[in-house]
Write a structure and sequence with these properties.
By secondary structure, the protein is mostly helical. About 80% of the residues lie in helices and about 0% in strands. The protein contains 8 helices and no strands. Helix 2 packs antiparallel against helix 5 and helix 5 packs antiparallel against helix 6. The longest helix has 26 residues. The radius of gyration is 15 Å and the shape is globular.
């Protein structure tokens, strides 16, 4: 990987960390609509018109379209934050679907890496209590079992 490519990835991670920090601040301040707008704007900035396409495909297809672990992780985190915001806004069904999708996307990101990184493990830990794992595909259930076995 070239140093320019690495620099772009580092910059994307730093920008996302900044955005997610701002989203958390807006949530704490009760400014949920602004937080939703920030998540949506960030998704459109990162993925462009492809964002709408990604939201209409299953997690595995979305991961194939995105291609890299970093992009899939970014998509998963945006999806997770949106689900949390939907939950806080009382949109329970939308939040549950979002939590499930975020979990699946994090698992897809994990598949693309040599190991499960700390951020992905943390996201999985936060999402698992919010998702009915019996509704996940068998392959995702098996992947969760493998990840649990490698703690």
């Amino acid at each position: 990987m070239s140093s320019t490519h690495k620099d772009l990835k580092v910059r994307m991670v730093q920008q996302l960390a900044d955005v997610f920090g701002r989203v958390v601040g807006l949530k704490r301040a009760g400014r949920l609509d602004e937080a939703v707008e920030l998540v949506q704007t960030t998704a459109l900035h990162l993925f462009g018109p492809m964002w709408e396409t990604l939201t209409r495909h299953d997690a595995s297809s979305a991961a194939m379209m995105l291609g890299s672990r970093e992009k899939v992780s970014a998509c998963a985190m945006l999806t997770q934050h949106r689900a949390e915001l939907d939950d806080l806004r009382g949109e329970v069904w939308k939040a549950q679907a979002g939590y499930k999708r975020a979990l699946e996307l994090h698992l897809e990101a994990a598949r693309l890496g040599a190991d499960v990184d700390v951020a992905t493990r943390s996201a999985l830990k936060a999402l698992r209590p919010r998702v009915d794992e019996s509704k996940l595909s068998k392959s995702y259930q098996m992947q969760l079992e493998r990840i649990d076995g490698h703690r």
